[in-house]
Specification:
The chain has 441 residues and is an alpha/beta fold. The protein is built from 16 helices and 17 strands. The protein has a five-stranded mixed beta sheet. Strands 1-2-3 form a three-stranded antiparallel beta sheet. The chain has a three-stranded parallel beta sheet with strand order 9-10-11, with helices on one face. α8 runs parallel beside α9 (217-234) and α9 runs parallel beside α10. The longest helix is centred in the N-terminal third of the chain and has 18 residues, at 113-130. The protein starts with a helix and ends in a 26-residue tail after the last helix. Bound molecules: magnesium ion. Residues 243, 269-270, 295 line the site of magnesium ion.
């Protein structure tokens, strides 16, 4: 009926492109014909300092619309470029199909950066093609604003660090996180026992259980005194999470965790590697404050394994490692089945931030999202197109613009490019990368 009415209103002989009629019929404003949208290019702009190194990627199409994503902080943009030849010719609106095609090229931590960056860009494109925000494509939203916690530069002086954290609360943040490592007490005699010559710094790449580093009662006492002063300054009513304990053994984690119990910490993060289900569970069962892990895990299966075993209390995926928006929503939904909340780890530009915001809006058991760049003055200027602030007083605002809801601001991005790199320069040398990618014979 709609179409008849529509056509009936046309002057005889008027020409209407088929895609216009298709769009009208669907009552959806589209950029063209979504079913014929094809990926034609993938390029990058490598931003530094927003924080660390964060390559943003742009996926172009045959209908003049582009989608943006971001390779995880610190990762190589090559992880995205090797996917280019597998993406050209695909319809970006088939997000899940394309994700399943490329997900074999991701792995834990930074190696997932390419797959996840592409997945973000696909949602941006699908949203633009159908003129709806990404959260809507994920099933709609549970909330209009997203609770944030932020990274705060550490100081070994509890008065200085406590004041910095207290200011975060004053700025509107409703959840705090602090770094709390054995580096605080390592230089004080009698606090840390380690094979002579081994320091927290040199042990940084050795898994916690294998360093031989243990903390003494004196060390635990000093760390607890430090937290006590900070707790008094920020207040006892606000969640206070802690991270970066250092690579100490399981027994030290338990003794330190017991010491920290009286400060009612919101979670203790990555005390040992996420791979150690049984030993995480041992720590969790011995202490009476929540344990958290997850920022280095790729894909939902390890999260489900940890949740099923109740090895930690809070799981904390980084969307730029965990598999992108849809996989992270699936992770949240799976965790909920086992009674666990999902916090979200994040460090990057506003492109990846917005991918997180859409996913957090669409996931019921979401708890809190990290914001790593509150102190970078130009961070918010890296993007444009949003007619509301990215965040306000400790909360991110969920945008209603199509896709992720932001576009790079070329003028600002160009000021922060990695030396020797261009602004979405051609990447044709990656067009013909070929490999027989079958996973079974
Ligand atoms: Mg962490």
């Amino acid at each position: 009926m709609k179409r008849r009415g529509f056509l009936g209103g046309l002057a005889a002989g008027a020409f209407w492109a088929e895609e216009t009629i298709q769009a009208y019929q669907g009552n959806v404003k589209t950029a063209g014909k979504p079913s014929e949208l094809k990926i034609t290019d993938l390029r990058f702009a490598h931003i530094i300092g927003a924080p660390m190194r964060a390559p943003i990627i742009r996926i172009d199409t045959n209908q003049g619309i582009s989608g943006y994503g971001e390779v995880r902080d610190g990762a190589s943009v090559t992880y995205a470029l090797i996917l280019k030849s597998r993406l050209i010719g695909e319809n970006p609106c088939n997000v899940d199909k394309v994700f399943r095609k490329i997900k074999q090229f991701g792995f834990h931590a930074r190696q997932a950066g390419g797959v996840c960056g592409v997945e973000m860009a696909l949602w941006d494109l699908a949203g633009k093609a159908y003129n709806v925000p990404a959260y809507q494509l994920l099933g709609g939203k549970f909330r209009d604003k997203i609770r944030l916690y932020c990274d705060t530069t550490e100081s070994h002086d509890p008065k200085v660090y406590g004041e910095r954290l207290r200011k975060r609360r004053e700025e509107g943040f409703t959840w705090l996180k602090m770094d709390l490592g054995i580096d605080l007490v390592e230089q004080t005699p009698g606090c840390v026992t380690a094979p002579l010559g081994v320091t927290q710094r040199t042990a940084g790449l050795t898994p916690h259980m294998f360093t031989g580093m243990e903390i003494t009662d004196k060390g635990i006492g000093l760390m607890c005194d430090y937290v006590a002063q900070i707790r008094e300054m920020v207040g006892w009513d606000i969640p206070l999470s802690a991270d970066h304990f250092g690579h100490i053994g399981v027994n030290s984690c338990i003794r330190l965790g017991k010491g920290l119990t009286k400060f009612n910490m919101a979670w203790l993060e990555d005390m040992i590697p996420w791979t150690e289900t049984e030993q995480l569970k041992e720590i969790k069962e011995a202490i009476d404050i929540p344990l958290c892990t997850g920022e280095d895990i790729y894909l939902k299966e390890p999260f489900i394994h940890l949740a099923k075993n109740h090895a930690v209390d809070v799981l904390h995926p980084d969307l730029a490692t965990s598999g992108g928006l849809l996989e992270t929503k699936k992770i949240g939904d799976a965790l909920m089945e086992y009674g666990h909340p999902m916090a979200m780890h994040f460090a990057g530009t506003p492109i990846s931030f917005m991918a997180n915001v859409h996913c957090a809006a669409a996931t019921e058991n979401f708890l809190v999202l990290e914001h790593h760049s509150v102190d970078v003055p130009w961070w918010k200027d890296l993007v444009k197109g949003n007619d509301q602030p990215l965040s306000e007083k400790g909360w991110a605002v969920v945008p209603d613009k199509p896709g992720l809801g932001v576009e790079p601001n070329a003028d600002e991005v160009k000021k922060h490019l990695a030396p020797g790199t261009g602004y979405f320069d051609p990447s044709d040398s990656w067009n013909n990368e070929r490999s027989w990618d079958r996973l079974y014979s």
